[in-house]
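Bumping with the actual sequence this time:
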Amino acid sequence: MNEGKPLRVAELAERWNCSAGKVRKLIHSGQIGVLRLGTTMVRIPLASILAFEEQWQHPIVPTPAASPAASVGTANTSEFIALQAARVVMRARTPPRRRGARHD
């Protein structure tokens, strides 16, 4: 693959091992700059890709807490990761509500 050419949405999704929908959401939110060619054709320039990847290569590390209680709730704790995984599982198990259903 020529590293200098702009990528299609599907090519970028393959590069990042994610769905094309996720890439489109990042484009729609303005987090990734794109080239629009006509009404439907979108290409993502290499500069936009590299800038976005650079943001995520250097994770924010919290400063050491003065006490163990001060570190509660930081995003890098194993408890936080476990909680996020549990939320994903719960969402997958919960059936969607029907419109107009009574909530007694």
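The tokens above came from a reply further down the thread. The chain has a mean pLDDT of 75.
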